[in-house]
Specification:
It is a single chain. The protein folds into 2 domains: 203 residues, P-loop containing nucleotide triphosphate hydrolases (Rossmann fold), CATH 3.40.50; 244 residues, 3-Layer(aba) Sandwich (Rossmann fold). The radius of gyration is 24 Å and the shape is globular. With 471 residues, the protein is of the alpha/beta class.
Length: 471
Amino acid sequence: MLGENGAGKTVLMRILYGMHKPDQGQIFVDDQEVRIDNSAKAISLGIGMVHQHFMLVPSLTVAENIVLGLEPTKYSYLLNIDKTLKDIKSLSDRYRLQVDPKAIVSTIPVGIQQRVEILKALYRRAEILILDEPTSILTPQEVESLFEAIRALKQQGKSVIFITHKLKEVCAICDRITVLKKGKVVGTVDRTQTNSDALAQMMVGREVLYTFERKQVTPGKIVLKTESLNASNDRKLPALRDVNLEIHESEILGLAGIEGNGQTELVEVLTGLRESRSGKISFLGETITKTSTHRRIEKGFANVPEDRQKTGLILDFSVLENLILGRQDKPPFATKWSILDLSNCSKFAGQSIEEYSIRTPSEHTLARYLSGGTQQRVVIAREFSRKPKFIIASQPTRGLDIGATEYVHTKLVEMRDQGCAILLITADLDEMFALSDRIAVIYEGRIVALKERSETNELELGLFMTGGKCG
């Protein structure tokens, strides 16, 4: 299932899973009309859903998460561990979803966590499995492993609804493809009778660019440099280990890595949100290791954070308020007495809404009522409009449709061509290769490889990302 942000994919899936109630219409399961009032009803009808953001309890084991709520017991109240492990092994073998049932969820990679989510649905006898953006945080090897599992599910007679923004994956794994636009079905096509270009046109109504005419720009002076940077995570364990990076003017440095290998901590240290244990950060030749976040922004930092809701937006602020956030006390948004100039604020908000195609009923709509993709556009509009010298872009297109993704990619390349230094952190290796001039790989907090884009490939990066190859 394909569609732009706001096309209705998530709403439709939530209706099928009992999280939203439809205003009208009918749902049929096995040719029988059904009424799905809640998720328990959906599960009883054999419908399972794996959400984009996993619904696992990190402190519990894989086995405990899978059987949670339907625990096999002995003596009426004790968990029957032997039966639990036997059932999970049977499921794992049948659907080629190998997991360690005794592992603590917080200690396993996201690719394995996704398998746990799928097994959790299968344990509840799901016959129809909804996968929402299932590959957004996986390495190429993990994506292929997921595809093998989906093929196994199909062979066992299961039905799978696969929601994604990646046309290459749709063409690789799906049998039929349905495109939604503005809440309506544009069409359903057989995979063998379509291609990526045709699907993109169905989604956005025009041809979409997948490659860019990148100017041959010679990287300039070093904008940001880290030297032997070390930092701890929230549990006081080492998260960054002697990180050395240089990012130049007119350069996009891609940082590849499986989530949880230090990317978040690196961004927080660079932006001043986390203290480093040792090492040095320089910006345009000036040491800024102890400089505040606000001062770094004033010097020319911009940050598109990986979690737009937690650290990118204030959800109970309006679109307008989020767009001027950080500059609300300076001209042209405020008078010399630091009073908001509502006319200029509104003018800027209107221009940003139009330029970045922010789909909102009004500039006064609260950010929490926007779709995830639209929230991301608000963040990007605010950060890019600051005319920064250095941009950190963490998962900048996660949750965006192909039209919006194309725009963000074009804008990033445009900023690079204008002399901006950019650190791109993304789990999408297609995006990494499309945008980056050089690519670094981070594994367990260390930079284990640094390659020119033309000197590496997805397979090699995937090996570096999983610790399977030494730099």
